[in-house]
Amino acid sequence: MDDPVVPKDDAPSPVQEDSKPAFRTYASDVAHLTGKPLPPNVKNTPAPVPTTPAPPPPAKIIPKAPTTEESREAVLERLRAKAAGKTVAVPAAPDPVPAPPAPSTAETREEVLKRLQKNAAPRPAPTASMRPPAPPPPPVGIPPVTKKPEVVQAPAAVHTYKSDFSEKAKTERATPISILAAEQNARGTALQPHQLKAPKKNYVPMIAGAVALLIAGGASIYFSVLFVTGRPPIIVAPSVPSLIFADVHRELKGTGFELQQGLSELRNENLPEGGVAVAYVTYASTTGKNTTVMLPAEGGALISGMGLSAPEILLRNVEPQSTVGVVRADAETHPFFMFRVASYERTFAGMLQWESTIARDLSRFYPDYPEEAPLGTSTATSTQRAPIRMPRIFIDAVIDNHDVRVLKDEQGRQLMIYGYRDKETLIIARSEKAFSELLARLSSTRSN
Fold this sequence. Notes:
The chain has helices at 26-34, 72-83, 109-119, 161-172, 176-189, 204-230, 257-265, 299-306, 312-316, 344-354, 358-361, 432-447, and strands at 248-251, 276-280, 282-286, 292-296, 323-329, 332-340, 394-399, 402-408, 414-422, 425-429.
């Protein structure tokens, strides 16, 4: 089987021997088109041939140089048959096509151009498809928009005094004398300006009103001073500090035994059942006018001034916001002590320590009951029975849901009661009824 032959078009072009640049001329172009030789006086400079290298051949296929007798179609047919595994007879090469007659050298440039233009294909006439598309028609119901030319108005002429005067003179055919006369008449008939005088202000009413106000102010001040100095001064009684509200306030004077004696004498105060009288002492105070006034002190000052024989641990924890007074209960009036304490534990320990001597120390405020008469005899043969006597000690009890300690005499009568309303308030009273009244007043005062 013959080796495949590469077509002429795929064959590599020969390399130009002359490496100098080639120049094209009109004579060389005409000779190239007509096939005639160049004149002797014109140097034959061939046109440059592109030196583009041919693509590399496929693998394992060595191209064979094409023959001049074999055409391109024959080579392609032979290659297709070889690829299909068949052998096709190579047809004979066709006869060469005769070259066109060479143009004569006597042909001019104009003749060559006319012949070339005649051989050129005629340009087709423009058709409907080549024309630009017409604009679409406007929608139905909407008139087409037409742009009206804008009319530019000329600017109005500027009127001046000179132009108006000239126009007036032309229309009325005025002379210089008539113009001067018209100006003189206009000056005579024009209104003469006059200066307006400002109205005079009347200040007499204003001055009279100011004087009347001054007189009225001075009179009011004068009568106010007379009214205040003619009345006696109003003395406002200072309020007495107290943990509970009281019906009566009584001032005590002195120190030590005198204060104890004054508190004991308050039992003679005429109070209703459940009434309370609060005792207090005063202290000197200086006001802003260097005047000394006496003001009521808190109950702690009265307790400290009486000098009670109480344990020191109790007295150290009694605060100034305390209250001392008398309360009437069960048709009896006896003093009471309402201590505001700083420590519940220390004051309760001090009261337990004071239980052994408190009846003797406070005997002036809570005396013993008088002795009762014997019960008597039922028959002549019966013997007189002695009253049953109980030991005088403190016992635990509950009053209005508050734990208290009660001291009773030999016959079971209540001599003294003490207990805590809360951990900050310690109350000492004569009886259960007095203790309940003080609790009620304390609760009412704190709720308000």
